[in-house]
Amino acid sequence: MTAEAEPSADTASPAASAEGAVAHADAASDFPSIELSGIVQEYPTPDGKTLRVLDGVDLTLDRPGITMLLGPSGCGKSTLLRMMGGVRPTGVQTPTKGTVRIGGKPCDGPHEDAVMVFQRYANRPDLSIHENVALPFRFSMWKKRVPRSEVKTRVRDILAAVGLGDKHDLRPAQLSGGQNQRVALARALVLRPRILLMDEPFGALDAQTREEMQLLLGKLLVENPCVVVFVTHDVSEALVLGDRVLVLSASPAKIVDDIALDEPRPRSTAWLMSSAIVDVKDRVLERLHESRTHGQVRLSF
Ligand SMILES: Nc1ncnc2c1ncn2[C@@H]1O[C@H](COP(=O)(O)OP(=O)(O)OP(=O)(O)O)[C@@H](O)[C@H]1O
Ligand SMILES: [Mg+2]
Fold first, then answer.
1. Is residue 203 part of a domain?
2. Which ligand is nearest to the CA of 76?
3. Number of domains, the chain
4. Same domain for 8 and 52?
5. How, if at all, do strands 65-70 and 244-248 pair?
6. Do 188 and 203 belong together in one domain?
7. How confident is the model at residue 24 (pLDDT cuts 50, 70, 90)?
8. Is 131 in the same domain as 271?
């Protein structure tokens, strides 16, 4: 998995066998589980103290689908998300206590199956849209996993799927913010990840573009199912997209709610406005307000 600091972009992931990489997306039963048990995370503070951010998180994700992660700002969502991909900040033991297992094995570094998408889409201004999407394949780990002959087809197909089939030769500066976020999504999905970790990916978009991206993501995941964890501050977004909605309390955070939503996507306005779902929304808002979120929650209906 890539760190933001890589020269490139916001996605990548370490090496695996070439066969595994190409074949795994087709095998519906072959999704790695993510198991967090007894997770405690503490960070050192500048005044020499310790800040406990996560306080006993137990969680298993063992099937493809979208798990939405909500919680007050600063409660530890990004910390938890990075942990699910095996990413560790330098100089900090992660997790402080507890275990992270991916695909049944203890995870002690960036995991080969996990790809991240951030709110800051980090497209390279000096490269064309095609080159931006193909960028992970410049890294040796992806060079090994995907034959060169396949890269061009994959990039062409994913750019068509995100509605940018006619933008291959443009530069990021020639695209809108929403189109740039599509490029970032394409750069993640072109890798056909089995685990997709999304940190407020649509948080900077206007309401209409966000809605378009939510629809697009739902559609793309039908074609490329994977284990998705999606951090948001938007309760409505969680209800539009989530197969499962997890709510974290304020820091030191625990999971304070875990809601399953089995309605297929795309979800109709009638379903979203039904009394059962309005009740779910109220319940999530209540949990968040119990955590004293001070206006961090957003609703977009
Ligand atoms: N590497 C680090 N070293 C020290 N403190 C850190 C580090 N990473 C995160 N923190 C602290 O941990 C807390 C949780 O951070 P995190 O980014 O996980 O929260 P978040 O829920 O994603 O917040 P937001 O909703 O604002 O994105 C914050 O107080 C943050 O300052
Ligand atoms: Mg965050």
1. yes
2. 1
3. 2
4. no
5. parallel
6. no
7. very low
8. no
Whether 78 lines ligand 1, by a CB cut-off of 6 Å, is yes
Is ligand 1 within 6 A of the CB of residue 228? no
**Do residues 227 and 187 both lie within one domain?**
no
Counting ligand 1 atoms within 8 A of each CB, the residue from 39, 77, 119, 294 with the most, and so the one to mutate, is 77
Cβ 53 under 6 angstroms from ligand 1? yes
The residue segments making up the domain with residue 102 are: 31-113+197-301
Residues 23 and 99 in one domain: no
Determine, yes or no, domain membership for 251: yes
Q: Is residue 297 domain-resident?
A: yes
For residues 152 and 16, state if they share a domain.
Answer: yes
- CA of 80 relative to ligand 1 center, distance in Å: 10
Is the CB of residue 43 below 6 angstroms from any atom belonging to ligand 1?
yes
User: 134: pLDDT confidence band, cut at 50, 70 and 90?
Assistant: very high
pLDDT per residue as tens digits for the range 267-296: 999 999 999 999 999 999 999 988 754 444
